[in-house]
Amino acid sequence: MTLNRKKPEDLRSHRWYGANDLRSFGHRSRTAQMGYHASDYMGKPVIAVLNTWSEINSCHTHFRQRVEEVKRGIWQAGGFPVEMPVMTLAEPFQKPTTMLYRNFLAMEAEEVLRSYPFDGCVLMGGCDKTTPGLLMGAISMNLPAIFLPAGPMLRGDWHGRTLGSGSDTWKYWAELRAGTITEDEWKGVESGIARSPGHCMTMGTASTMTSAAEALGMTLPGFASIPAVDSRHAQHASLTGQRIVDMVWTDLKPSDILTPASFDNAVTTVLALSGSTNAIVHLVAVARRAGVPLTTARFDELARVTPVLGNIRPAGKYLMEDFFYAGGLRALLAELGDLIDGSQLTVNGATLGENIAGAAIFNDDVIRRRTHPLVQNDGLAVLTGNLAPDGAVIKPAAMEARLLRHRGPAVVFRDYADMAARIDDEALDITADSVIVLQHAGPVGAPGMPEWGQLPIPQKLLKAGVRDMVRISDARMSGTSYGACVLHVAPESFVGGPLAFVKDGDIVELDLPARRLHLGVTDDELAARKAAWTPPKRPFERGFGVMHQLHVTQADKGCDFDFLEEKAATGGDPDIH
Ligand code: FES
Fold it and tell me: Fewest C-beta in 10 Å: which of 89, 186, 308, 506?
């Protein structure tokens, strides 16, 4: 793709700085107030560096330093960097869930870019929702944009054992509850599981979404796999700063990069990594911002032909650090061969195919060959049936195979508090064949669709050796979780989806090969239960939550706000004079 180079007077920032009027006097004098001479910025691309760093985001600790490296690159390339702090979305700390605020970050990113004199932007994210939030906002504004992935943290370590984020938390928590490890040993896991800056190093939502961003073409090639503390991460931060300046001069925008084929590449990548189920919600939302009609059904279609090649926890054995040493995402994409459309443009101006040409696998147990995949297909699956008319999601690669076809009686919890109060009750009528159902855990009802979907197995069954059961909810599940968990049931129970009408003892049938989720009651009975149902009171009475509960879409549509999800008609530039 040949792009014409802009002249300085074509820059968007020229409208703030270049005019000879009272407003521009104000912009220039106040920039001088910050210690910049006109030669620092006049006629140069002004680059926003949207930084999700904060003192409570442990995954982005290194962004305080990385932003300096990004700025160094921008200066080197003849741009003018402006760091802009935006909502941090710290996954472990923000309640009830960062998902409630993903759209908040997207709105903030879009409006910051719209309202200030920026010509392009670097998006610094990684911890789960920061990646989709930043991408959604930048796509809607459609200025030249490049994504800087935080990079995974180092492997966890405890007593000589490798620990993986999330996955080993759930594993050792189950062992503690089963009485097979001590409190002291549990404390040891706590101090060793997260021992460096960087996002979760399993194939959780963070690793999944940063890899998807690279496959989309929004990140410099190879960057998503580099551990956060590796010096090559810092080098790539500087290169990212250099690159965005040229993207401005050539006006290379998200709309030039994001196509149905580039989203197929991202979906195929997620599937080949056995990535987080959260990627379905996020990629659908990101695609709709770009005007690409990506559906959950497309994930299922591609899952049937995409082998799982990334042998990474929770579905596999290794961690992101191993993945990087084995060749990283470039090597995996190259191995996918004809399943990837290499003709798609990326942020460095080259095609994805050019970027991955010659990439080699250095350990083919970590990155499997197509002739020897971890799983032949079905990294994710989309289910439908009378219990989920608009779909539900499951991760077959991370569940016990005996449950792929299963029928069992429902044990229903009306909300999270009900489940927490009763799940370990010795008197609870539940067996390993039961199907655990959690209601009111969706986008509106929970609120914010928290990651509650890996519903706990009752302690008495854990002690009896049960480690997996069929569990169903309208919640999401952490990408680091595992088990036969049916998630994202749409429409959600809180707004009157069929999940609201399941009763204890109803027979639920999961048939993964048929992609079916069925409640064994008649249509008439289901209709009668719905007629007798009273909608629950909505959770928010003020603030951002009111906007959320009025406008959030269901999981199959990406949980964006209905007034934001359409492709932006224009950049919506303000009249600055
Ligand atoms: Fe930040 Fe997992 S807590 S990515």
Answer: 186
